[in-house]
Amino acid sequence: MNKDLLLQKILNIKETELAALTGKELRLPELHEKPKILLLYGSLREGSYSRKVIEEAELLLREMGAETFIFHPEGLPLHSTTEGAQHPKVQELRERVTWSDGMVWCSPEIHGSMSSVMKTQIDWIPLSINAIRPTQGKTLAIMQVSGGSQSFNALNQLRVLGRWMRMFTIPNQSSVAKVYQEFDEQGRMRESSYYERIVDVMEELMKFTLLTRDNKQYLTDRYSERVQKSNKLAEVLKNENISE
């Protein structure tokens, strides 16, 4: 079986229509390191559809040239519990956030909102770790799944959180309605407009990651933070002069 037919069978994509994301079209320097993408899903349920969608997204990202990691939230404590940041699952999550160049979040919609499992993972990601902002300037793709008709409530909330965490949340997004109808007996997603949208979203995530990854320090450099650093330095120098 030739590669095009094999890819179509495994990923439901046509290789001839999948753009090679090398950065050349963006006039970027040659890639020496694959974009690193962290994927989060929002359900602990056996047979979770948000996890299945994330697994489909991971396959696509790998085919597009990314290095990927899916974080499994089983065992992650509620935010602000006794063990806190020392819990092994919290440390694993934070290490992977720091490792990543971009992220994919996929949540089921429950009572018109993202799931508590999804929110708990995001709550454990701090805005700052030892003066380093682990999410600032990184890319983010958002998706949601629904058991009923198509909705965008969870997506809207995820987009707000991405902005709050100073991430570049890409314009495209995916909402899969009646998600239980979109997977076959082997647990793979069927070819459909929903699947094609997920391909679109992952492709766009890769493009934005390639565009911004090596320039995030410049893109997120802020006047207010430069002033704050300058004032702190001036205070240190002032105290040193007084002590002399």
Automatic annotation (TrEMBL):
InterPro entries tied to this protein: Arsenate-R_ArsH, Flavoprotein-like_sf, FMN_Rdtase-like_dom
Family annotation (Gene3D superfamilies): 3.40.50.360
Keyword match Hydrolase: no
Any one Gene Ontology molecular-function term assigned to this protein's record: oxidoreductase activity, acting on NAD(P)H, quinone or similar compound as acceptor
Keywords attached to this entry: Flavoprotein, FMN
Domain of life: Bacteria
Keyword Flavoprotein: yes
Domain NADPH-dependent FMN reductase-like: 35-178
The protein's name in its UniProt record: Arsenical resistance protein ArsH
Organism annotation: Pseudoalteromonas aurantia
Lineage: Bacteria, Pseudomonadati, Pseudomonadota, Gammaproteobacteria, Alteromonadales
Encoding gene, per UniProt annotation: arsH
